[in-house]
Amino acid sequence: MMKVRGAGVVTLSLMLSMGCEGPLVGVTVVDERTALENQVLGTYQELNQEVLLVASVRYIDPKGKLKKSPEIPAGKKQVIRALQRSSFNKDDLDSWKQQGVLGENNEGGLTLLDRKRVAPAQVAFVDNLIAEENADRAVVMARVIETNEKLSEKDLPRVKKMFAALNRDKAPVGHMIQFDDGTWVKKGQ
Q1: In which band, very low, low, confident or very high, does the pLDDT at 69 lie, cut at 50, 70 and 90?
Q2: Within its chain, how far is the Cα of 93 from the centroid?
């Protein structure tokens, strides 16, 4: 299997033009973007794991008495709430996405694609769902940057693009997704 990304194309071209013979089986070229994607994804998975641990751990002393849980730092508490609310809203969001009303945009957020398909009585509900989900995603992205020593605020646009790619990959067939060039398509098989 051969993977080539970014600057690897130049390297591959040079090798081919220099008379490199034989198959290039097993050649893997990984660029900076892939490494950063792996770091972001790893940090995001750690945050999700922390939420599970916080929700499932009780502190009991050796005598069997319930002890007060240690105070959760403000930044962690904020991301926990964001992930919980996002999880709570998931069914409603998935329903609107399946109907083609909402789509995963190229900035890692949700976009309202077809307001006309929303009943007037539900417009405020849908608007609030989108606002909550986008705010929750912003909190998670900020926490990923905050907890990863190799990232800073200047990396936010790249982190947004990585979350957008992750959301596109996770989107079920039939959901609307936006590519980096701004094109909207219904995700196919």
Answers
A1: low
A2: 15
